[in-house]
Amino acid sequence: MRRAGTAVLAVIGVLVLVVVGFLVYASLVFEGDREASLDAWRSNGVEITGTGRSFVIEPTTGATDSGLVFIPGAKVQPSAYLYKMAGIAEATGMTVVITEPTLNLAFFDTRPLSDFTADAPDVDRWFVGGHSLGGVRACQLAGADAEPQVVGLILFGSYCVDDLSDSDLAVLSIVAENDGLSTPEDVASRSGNLPDDAVTVVIEGANHAAFGDYGPQPGDGAATIDRQEARASLADAVAQFLGGLESSA
Predict the structure, then answer these.
(1) Taking a C-beta distance cutoff of 8 angstroms, is the pair 93, 125 a contact?
(2) Same domain, 10 and 97
(3) Do residues 192 and 91 share a domain?
(4) Distance between CA atoms of 212 and 80, rounded to whole angstroms?
(5) Are 57 and 48 in contact (CB under 8 A)?
(6) Which domain does 3 fall in, by range?
(7) Same-domain status, 76 and 24
(8) Are 198 and 237 members of one domain?
(9) pTM attached to this predicted model
(10) pLDDT in tens for each of the 249 residues of the chain?
């Protein structure tokens, strides 16, 4: 009995160490650049609201009925994307909702898409997207059972594991030329999971971390453009994509 009790205590001890170790791992995030975040908050072109589960970025002029639910990359602070997403909101008129994933990992966030679209009730047409592993999660949320229905998918240095090739989704895949994590080759190898008319745009000089503002990331390539240039290129890519959808409607 003593041996059995000792074995049970040992197992419990190991499980506790595993759980504690994972929680510590999940809490060590890539923190957003303070200067970039402040530039977004101070901008006259957008209004940013924190809801406790998301950041909602609304353009102050030229707002449309379109919105994007954006899912951060693994262990990246949601605030690290404020500057880049604010640029997209200003350029396109769409509202952007940046989610705050459970444990900083999108795959542990089981909340439905509707939890985040509810933060922008004036939006009628929804896109979903994300950076890196956040984009992989976005592909799952963009399926036929999405509620509310999703009309499009925008991938930022990411790809789909789920097969969406037969879907009616409008898809934009933005690839960074110097991405050392979701490399252009990796993204291309998964392109068969996207519809045939998916649009791919390569941002020259950008790396994986250039989709946000959180400093260098191990394994990434080197960026040869600054954050302002990356922001403008991302905003232009999304604006052209949305413009193409309007012209073909």
Answers:
(1) no
(2) no
(3) yes
(4) 5
(5) yes
(6) 1-29
(7) no
(8) yes
(9) 0.89
(10) 555 545 544 445 444 433 333 333 344 579 999 999 999 999 999 999 999 999 999 999 999 999 999 999 999 999 999 999 999 999 999 999 999 999 888 878 989 999 999 999 999 999 999 999 999 999 999 986 888 999 999 999 999 999 999 999 999 999 999 999 999 999 999 999 999 999 999 999 999 999 999 999 999 999 999 999 999 999 999 999 999 998 776
